[in-house]
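Objective 1b: paired records.
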Amino acid sequence: MGWVNTDGAFDLVTRDAGVGVVVRNCNGEMINGFGCLVNVSSAVMSEFRACEQGVQLALWNKYEKVVFETDSLEVFKFVYFKNQNVSWCVKVVAANIVDRLKLVPKYRLPSILRGANMAADWVATQFKRKICPENWLSQPPSSFVNVLSRDGLPAPP
């Protein structure tokens, strides 16, 4: 069983968004992650793009039991209730998420409180600001290690 936390951080002025994904194993240790900068139309779209990347990362790594955690109610509602009250451009990404989730043998996608998603938020925010170090996964900066420790995750060796 693994946990995949996803988050998007959107800049209304530039329309740039950071996408953050943090993967933990059943012991709570960070084992993988992903981050990137994308240009999107809204904060909601950044959340959907983050979830899309989280699902893709789980598929690439052949995770069979996954808990995808998001603090976006829009993502949660779309996946579980097929809430169609999203813009047409978001629907394309949302439908892609739903299709890819069918390829994950066993998963859950609970909506969590923002405070429980700080590691993915840190990654997304750093990418949005264009200041995330390239080696953030292999050599996490002290600011990220602090977030991981407050999130209840063991600090990297």
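Objective 1b, second protein:
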Amino acid sequence: MQDPTLNQLVEQALANSPSMKMADSRLRQARSIVGLNESTLGPQVDANASRSRERYSLYGILPPPLAGSYQNLYTLSLNANWEIDFWGKNRAEVAAALGNQRAVAYEGEQTRLVLTQAVIAQYTGLQHSQGTGTLAQPAVKVGRNPAGAAQGAGKRRTAVGRHPAPERDPDQSLATASQPVA
């Protein structure tokens, strides 16, 4: 877009839009689900370590060297697992997650385009209303020759390419120019 103001407005709208933030959040979530599903295709290794401290009862069934004493218990475990995907269940889950990720990405792109289109429509509508107001102002300001001012406005509209030059009766132009401009 060749207008720096419009570019800045679009960038601000995209940066501050709650819809875009939600779309980005959904895309991050879809990516993490793909990662989780892809992790099932390969080997999985788990490591656990724990430490516990326990005091044995003084009057229990244990003999006196252990009775009433504190003991530390250390546990370390390592587990390896690999689920072989004979029937393609895990690959199908990964493919479904990738498809969902693509769909969420397209929804995010659609949200971006809708927001950009809305900003452009509002901006061009504002420019058009301001442009129409400035074209009608010379006819009101001149006051002495409203027919000439209206014809000049028609020439400007034709030069810009908005509307063809109107063919009006000078008396009708006088009536139109004397009406208040909204």
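The longest strand covers residues 44-55. DSSP finds five helices and two strands in the chain.
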